[in-house]
Amino acid sequence: MVFVMSSSLLRYAVVLGLLSAIGPFAIDMYLPALPAIGQDLGASTSAVQMSLMAFFISVGLGQLIYGPVADMVGRKPPLYFGLVLFALASIGCALAPNVEMLILFRFIQGLGACAGMVVPRAIVRDLHTGNEAAKLMSMLMLVFSISPILAPLAGSAVTAFASWRAIFWIVMVAAILGLVLLALALDETRPAEDRVESGVGSAIAGYWQLLRDRHFLGLVFIGAFGISSFFAYLANSSFVLIDHYGLTPTQYSLAFSVNAVSFFGFSQLNGKLGAMFGLAKVMSIAVTGFAASVVLLFLLVLAGVDGLAVIIGMLFIGNGFLGLVIPTSAVLALDEHGEIAGTASALMGTLQMVTGAVVMAVVGLFLDGTALPMIAGIAACGVIAFTLTQVTLGRRGRPLAAPAE
Prior knowledge:
- By secondary structure, the chain is mainly α.
- The protein contains 17 helices and no strands.
- The longest helix is centred in the middle third of the chain and has 31 residues, at 214-244.
C-alpha cells in the first residue's frame, strides 16, 4: 500500500511538474537570446524586456479566470485550452516581424501558459494538505526545476546554431507533448459532485472572502516578494552577466543554472523539515536567512565588492533559503481553502505575478549597466518578505501548521 501511494505521489509530481514547466520553459529558454532579439528586431533593451513583462502580466491576469473555471468544470479542461492557446501563440512569436508583434504574441502566450501554473496547485490541494501537500509540492518543483536548469542551456545552444525564432518552435512542440501527457497520464481530481455549487457567483464570493483574509494575503505576498526577487534577476541577469561581466550565452546559462539548482535542491527539504518543526516555523527561519543573504549581498555590491563570484555565490545561498519559502507559503495559504482551491490558487498566482511585473518595471527604471540596480531590487524584496513574515506569522491566536505527530 505504501508503495502504491508512493508511486501515485511520484506520478502526480512528474506530470504536474512537467505541465507547470512548459510556461516557464518559454521564459528560461528565451533569456540567453534577449540581447540577440534586440539586435535582430532593432529594438531597445526596454522594448525587449517588455516582451518578458507582457508574458508575466498576462499570466497573472489570466489566472483569475482559470482558477474559478477549474472549480466549475474540473481541472483538465482548462489545461487543454491553455496548452492549445500557448502552442498557437508560440507560432505567432516565431513569425513575429517586429518587437511590437512579439510583445503581443508573448501576451497571448502567457494567457495559455497560466493554466499550467494555477491548476496544478489546485490539484495538489485536491489530493493532500499539510506536510503531505508540502512534500508533493516540493517534488513537483523538483521536476519543474528542469526548466531553469536546462532551458537556458538549450536556449543558448539553439541560438548558437539557429535563429532565436527556433526557440518558439521548440516550445510549441513542448506544448503538444504536454497535451499528450495530460490526456494519458493525469486523472481528474475534482469530480462532478464537487462542482455543483461552483459558478460565477461563488467565484466572486470566493475572491471577496480571500481578499478579506489577512492571513491568506500575508502568506501570498510573502511568496510574491520571494518570487519577485527571482523575477528581478530573471529580467536583468542576461544583460548584467553578458553585457557587464562579459559572459557568453552558454556561460550565462551555466551561471543561471547554479542558482536554480540551489533553489530547487533546498525545496526538497520542505516535507521533512515541516514534519519536524512545523511548516510555519520552517518558512519563518528560511525568510530570515533569505533576507539576510540578499541584504549582505547588496551591502557588498554597494561597497564595490561586486565580482561575479561574489554575486553568484551569495545568490546561491539566498536562493537556497528561497526554495524553502515559496512552496511552503503556497501550501499554508491554500491549506484552509480546499473548497475553493482553484480560486485561491488563481488569486495567489495573480497577485504574485503582478507583484513580480511591478518589481521588474521598477528595477528597470534604474538600470545603469551594472549589477547594483538588480541586486538592490532583490534585497528590497527580501526585506519586504521578512517584514510580512513577522506580521503574518506573529499574530497571536492564529493557528499555525504544527509538526506531524
